[in-house]
Design goal:
The chain is α+β, with helices and mostly antiparallel strands. It is built from 17 helices and 23 strands. 40% of the residues lie in helices and 15% in strands. A hairpin with a 4-residue loop joins strand 3 and strand 4.
């Protein structure tokens, strides 16, 4: 059975153009630059909303519409999204650009809010066109199906919809507030982990498990790093058959020291270190010259760019991958399990721990990866690098004018806490447990939000199938309402529309002005002369300048004379016999 057959007896479905008024003649696009010029230095109270496809896009100093209207996107609206709204209500005085249609119901016959809710329920798929950007033309809009019932029932439906939607909106508001609190709690957990309060109780209960403090751990790390460097250099000298030069040990590249200015005090047994002191490797992804579009395939080995790093997890795009042969030529940029991949472009602080699943994947051009020393817990330092403190540091010191970028120098200087190995593991375990709990609650909230969206959709479906409110046998049928709409349209069509005054042509104005000066035969105030020619007081400054330009031409020919008396210009006809240039 079709939807039309399911409608109540007194309801009917018509084409929208038969019952709804479309006022697209009130639309006019004004570019952003002109709007800024027009609104500059003007009091906000004197400005009016400027609307586009999906809502207000700015302000302007004038209005073209001053009646409650339903605005429906012409393009750039989410036509194919079953949840998002395609129509919205505009009240008061406002201006609409050419990206939205202006709809109104005839007063007392079709309620605007009834139009609004129905336009957010109807299926647009068969009425929009375009391959890259969908568009709802006026002719297609007019042909869209529109269900109509008596005006009284329209208002009963709108009242019930708003009552139910108000309850839904309140529930959604509470869910989103809970979602925000969970996200804030997530950040506070990271902060407490980085600054030590998260493991305060653990330290009190497990002091016997701490074998070395952060300071002792760093001393051991730095000693081992120097010894490894020296051994490597001695091996290189031996391979080349060279005797180590005098004081060769002095060339050891010391790691960057952390700048601890303004950093918070850490718990006993902790200390601030630089990332430079704690990593074996910082490797930026391959530059563009090493990867070309022709190298990318679908279903190969993924490469990881910043957009693939989300919420401390790697979410690859398998359509952006490379072959094993190509990977073999880029081994320097291949990540291993336990590495930390970091986005180095755009949003600062995106990072994730490389798991066994991602072992052997390629670090993308817009990313880098670090390899912490074996005596450190890579998972804990992934948490540290994703903390707000680190994000703020990276945002402050990143380079680039159009897009933020990270380089190795910035990464080396990041200050990070160094704590006993056992406490790193304990902190990581606590974060894991709490994050799992938070993620579960956030997922539950997402499910509840989706349910609310589905409920909203079902309410609209119920409303426009006649099931939301009881039918009233005293309501007039839709056929009678349609007759009233036709009669009202006919009556409105008979009302003469005010004509816009014809804009006089330049030649007509100058001829009329000469006639005025001839009749006056003496000096006349320029403003009075303009008024006698039909030039209104509100004429733009640019137009007045054009008229004066023509007058100066006549003055050069000797035909008229212009003089300044006080604050006003005076005009006088000299002769009618001098030819114009």
């Amino acid at each position: 059975m079709s939807e039309i057959e399911k409608l109540p007896v007194k309801w009917r479905q018509f084409e929208l153009g038969e019952v709804v008024e479309i006022h697209d003649n009130e639309r006019k696009p004004i570019n952003n630059s002109e709007r800024n010029t027009r609104t500059e230095n003007k009091d906000h109270s004197s400005l009016y909303p400027y609307y586009g496809a999906t809502g207000q896009v700015g302000w302007i100093d004038d209005f073209l519409s001053d009646q409650e209207s339903v605005l429906v996107g012409e393009d750039a609206a989410p036509f194919l999204d079953p949840i998002k709204n395609k129509a919205y209500l505009a009240n008061g005085k406002f201006w609409v650009n050419n990206h939205a249609h202006i709809l109104r119901g005839l007063n007392g016959l079709v309620a605007n809010k009834f139009i609004l809710h129905q336009m957010n329920h109807v299926d647009y798929r068969d009425y929009v066109s375009g391959s890259t950007r969908l568009k709802l033309t006026k002719s297609a809009l007019c042909k869209m199906p529109f269900i109509i019932c008596s005006y009284k029932e329209q208002n009963r439906i709108v009242d019930k919809l708003e009552e139910l939607f108000s309850e839904l909106d309140e529930g959604v508001k509470e869910l989103k507030a809970a979602q925000n609190k969970l996200n804030q709690y997530r950040q506070s957990l990271l902060k407490s982990a980085v600054e030590g309060s998260l493991t305060q109780q653990w330290r009190a209960e497990n002091s016997d498990r701490v074998q070395e403090t952060g300071e002792q751990l760093l001393a051991r790390i730095l000693k081992q790093r120097r010894e490894q460097w020296q051994q490597q250099k001695l091996t290189e000298f031996a391979e080349k058959g060279k005797t180590p030069p005098k004081n060769w040990q002095d060339k050891y590249p010391e790691p960057v020291q952390p700048d601890t200015t303004d950093l918070p005090k850490l718990p006993e047994g902790w200390m601030w270190a630089s990332l430079s002191q704690l990593v074996d490797l910082i490797q930026i992804g391959p530059f563009g010259s090493l990867l070309h579009k022709s190298d990318y395939i679908s279903g190969g080995i993924p490469l990881i760019n910043p957009t693939h790093i989300k919420n401390l997890k790697i979410e690859p795009d398998y359509n952006l991958s490379i072959t094993e042969d190509k990977l073999s030529s880029l081994q320097k940029y291949v990540m291993s399990e336990g590495d930390i991949v970091i986005g180095r472009r755009g949003e600062m602080g995106r990072c994730a721990l490389v798991s066994d699943k991602e072992d052997g994947w390629l670090c993308g051009t817009g990313s880098l990866f670090i390899r912490v020393l074996k005596s450190l817990n890579p998972e804990f330092y992934t948490w540290v690098l994703s903390s707000k403190r680190t994000k703020d540091f990276l945002a402050e010191f990143s380079v680039g004018t159009t897009m933020q970028n990270l380089n190795q120098k910035i990464l080396h200087s990041i200050p990070v806490p160094l704590l006993p190995e056992s406490e790193q593991t304990a902190a990581s375990d606590i974060l894991h447990s709490e994050y799992d709990r938070i993620d579960k609650q956030i997922e539950d909230i997402k499910v509840a939000l989706k349910q609310s969206e589905a409920q909203r959709k079902n309410i609209l479906k119920s409303a426009f199938s006649g099931q939301l409110v009881p039918q009233d046998s005293n309501d007039e049928p839709a056929s009678v309402l349609l007759k009233k709409i036709k009669q009202e349209r006919e009556a409105l069509a008979k009302i003469p529309k005010p004509r816009k005054p014809r804009k006089p042509k330049k030649v007509d104005i100058m001829n009329t002005l000469l006639e005025v000066l001839t009749a006056e035969n003496d000096w006349i105030d320029a403003q009075n002369a303009f008024q006698k020619c039909g030039i209104a007081d509100g004429t733009s400054t640019d137009r007045i300048e054009e008229i004066y330009a023509e007058l100066r031409k006549l003055e050069k020919t000797g035909r008229i004379q212009i003089q300044r008396l006080g604050d006003f210009d005076q005009l006088k006809l000299i002769t009618q016999n001098v030819k114009e240039d």
